[in-house]
Amino acid sequence: MARIKITQIKSVIDRSERQKRTMQALGLTKMNKSVEVEANNAIIGMIRKVNHLVAIEQI
């Protein structure tokens, strides 16, 4: 599997509870925090739900 780097670029303030929990499940809790994860179907689906809050890079 490919690895991707996900960086939070926008705040979760005034977002739905579902989006907040998705960001937390991805490991993103603060602005400009980055995590590296395996790109599987579950992670890709979570990224699609919060793509307006994150930046994605291929590693």
UniProtKB/TrEMBL annotation:
Residues 4-54 form the Large ribosomal subunit protein uL30-like ferredoxin-like fold domain. It holds the Pfam family Ribosomal_L30. The keyword Lipid metabolism does not apply. One of its GO terms (cellular component) is cytosolic large ribosomal subunit. GO terms for molecular function: structural constituent of ribosome. CDD domains: Ribosomal_L30 (cd01658). Signal peptide: none annotated. One of its GO terms (biological process) is translation. InterPro entries: Ribo_uL30_ferredoxin-like_sf, Ribosomal_uL30_bac-type, Ribosomal_uL30_ferredoxin-like. Keywords: Ribonucleoprotein, Ribosomal protein. Belongs to the universal ribosomal protein uL30 family. HAMAP family: Ribosomal_uL30_B. Part of the 50S ribosomal subunit. This is Large ribosomal subunit protein uL30. The gene is rpmD.
